[in-house]
Amino acid sequence: MTIFSLWAHKVINKAGGLVYQRNFAGSSSDGLAQLTSNEYLVLAGTLHGIHAITSRLSPTGSSSGAQVIEGETFKITILLTATGTKFVLLTSLAEATAEVVLQRVYEAYSDAVMKNPFHTPEMPIRSEGFDARITSLIGAGQP
Amino acid sequence: MQQYSQPHPRFSVLSGSSLSSAEHLSPTASSTRFSLPSAPSINTAIGTPKPGPRPNIYDRNINKTRTSEVSASALTFLFSEVVQYTQKRVSGINDLERRLNTLGYRVGTRVLELMVWRAESSSKAPKREIRFLPALMAIHTQVWRAVFGRPADAIEKSVENEDEYMIIDNDPPIERHISVPRDMNQLSCSSFTAGIVEAVLDGLGLPARVTAHHTPTQQFSSRTTILIKLDKSVLEREEILK
């Protein structure tokens, strides 16, 4: 029941740009590799591409794309919003609250980021209010 | 925002008049996510909706909208745009605060006028404040209630300067979702509120210079102090009236 990492993943044009990323307590002891910010950007771009592919694979009409991707030891939950922003949560398999957490993150994003006049759309999120909301939602993060 | 120069109370945060800006958004056309929860109150304010031209805002009953509320989300989005619009047209933090103060001043003059008219029509003995302290109390409770829906949290008097008074708000609603970047940390967006207070004091004949300062405590991270520095003439008159 561990939440490893949260990527708030905002789409810029047709390429996916990462605007917020944070790892959470216990992730390094559980062996989540520490990556450079560039590597996170690449991963986010790749995931954006995979998501775009999955949204075109549906044999029965249109689809919003992948929502959960599961591995042997972890799962990736993706929340696609109406405006194209993606929120991605990396958790353990047993974590049952990922969808709910992502909805809450979306709420925090709408409040603390979109209503903040000092935030530039499509740019990385540097908002103390958002950090505080995420901390109270998920727990202390790692730098 | 283009119509900002029009002589129209677009920036009024008072429930009744701010609905006029909501008129531009058709409640049926907007998506559910951005629809204004207060939209139905437009209709209740003017009775049953009828096709045809809506009554002029100046013909409406000023007391019917006294307790109606606007959506906090819509207001914060609007204020966020106000700050962004202003920030693009200024150089420096002092300039930004001054412009926000000026915008608040435009709201404040209308707040005072509307409050006086409402008191006139609803109370049997309407009263105009002529002394400073009762006026300060009225700002702390009535003005705050009319604009933000609740009284401010405290009034303080400066120990060092006898012409300085402070109104304290622990969690200013317009700043609730604003995170000021570190390189601008002297900025307080409540300069807008300071402008409202300055206009009300000016309108009551108590000229003062009003500024806003961010004074966080452990418990309240967005606590804000509205500092009122009274004009010398006010103190002299208070002395005579004693």
Automatic annotation (TrEMBL), chain A:
Entries under Pfam families matching the protein: Sybindin (PF04099)
Main localization category: endoplasmic reticulum
Biological process annotations from GO: endoplasmic reticulum to Golgi vesicle-mediated transport
Domain of life: Eukaryota
Cellular compartment(s): Endoplasmic reticulum; Golgi apparatus, cis-Golgi network; Golgi apparatus
Cellular component GO terms held in the UniProt record: endoplasmic reticulum; Golgi apparatus; TRAPP complex
Keyword tags: Endoplasmic reticulum, ER-Golgi transport, Golgi apparatus, Transport
CDD domains: TRAPPC4_synbindin (cd14856)
Record-stated family: Belongs to the TRAPP small subunits family. TRAPPC4 subfamily.
Assembly information from the UniProt record: Part of the multisubunit transport protein particle (TRAPP) complex.
Protein name: Trafficking protein particle complex subunit
Biological source species: Rhizopogon vesiculosus
Automatic annotation (TrEMBL), chain B:
CDD domains per the UniProt record, alphabetical: TRAPPC5_Trs31 (cd14943)
Biased composition (Polar residues): 27-46
Entry's Gene Ontology cellular component terms: endoplasmic reticulum; TRAPPI protein complex; TRAPPII protein complex; TRAPPIII protein complex
Keyword Transport annotated: yes
GO biological process: endoplasmic reticulum to Golgi vesicle-mediated transport
Ranges for region Disordered: 22-60
Chief location bin: endoplasmic reticulum
Keyword Transport applies: yes
InterPro entries xref list: NO_sig/Golgi_transp_ligand-bd (IPR024096), TRAPP-I_su5 (IPR016696), TRAPP_component (IPR007194)
Localization in the cell: Endoplasmic reticulum; Golgi apparatus, cis-Golgi network
Keyword list, A-Z: Endoplasmic reticulum, ER-Golgi transport, Golgi apparatus, Transport
Membrane-spanning parts: none
Quaternary structure and partners: Part of the multisubunit TRAPP (transport protein particle) complex.
Similarity remark: Belongs to the TRAPP small subunits family. BET3 subfamily.
Protein name: Trafficking protein particle complex subunit
Organism of this sequence: Rhizopogon vesiculosus
